[in-house]
Model the fold of this input.
Amino acid sequence: MDGLLDTKWLLATWQLQVALGSGYTAYMVAYTGVRAHHQAIDTTFRALAFGLVATAILLVLPANRPLIAIPVAFVSTVFVGVLWRRIGMRFWNWLLRWSELTWGDDTPSAWTRMISDQDHFVTQIIVQTKDGRRLRCMDTRLFAGLPLGPAVLGTNGDIVLYVTHTLDGSGEREMKHTLDDHHGAMATYLPAGEIRQVMIRRKPRKTR
Done:
């Protein structure tokens, strides 16, 4: 996007600025959490593709009403980004598999695919650290409304979770003070380098 950030774009027509701004915002929304592997050319052309939505809308709206045309074009483009993330990506991957072109998708890793699954809620997390301990959150739904809740699954493999049980050489122990009426909830951060294995349970949204 370096070329798009040049100050000369500030002198472009407002229609072009709206298309570029809307397209980039829609791209950010559509690929949140799964864009770390994108190169500059990927970002540029995906943003331009979303920007075509804003351009098409601006062509059919009256040019002498920018206060109406701008928010309509922006909101519509971002909404298309949301639809692409929720429906379009899934349909595209299905189409590629149905046509037997490929069984892979554009996800750079299995971990990225796991953390980008929006159709299922994470209900339980078990993390085994390199020193042999197991840290468990037996029911993440208890922490859904808390800061960083119910958990944070980082794109680089790190995790924030609310530990309710630990298991080590001395046996299993319940962490009774993870939820405290006076001090609040205690979250635990685990760097990716300290994690050996992650086990996650999920349930479909409709059965939550």
Notes: Residues 66-98 form the longest helix (33 residues). The mean pLDDT is 86. The radius of gyration is 22 Å. The helical segments are 14-30, 40-60, 66-98, 110-115.
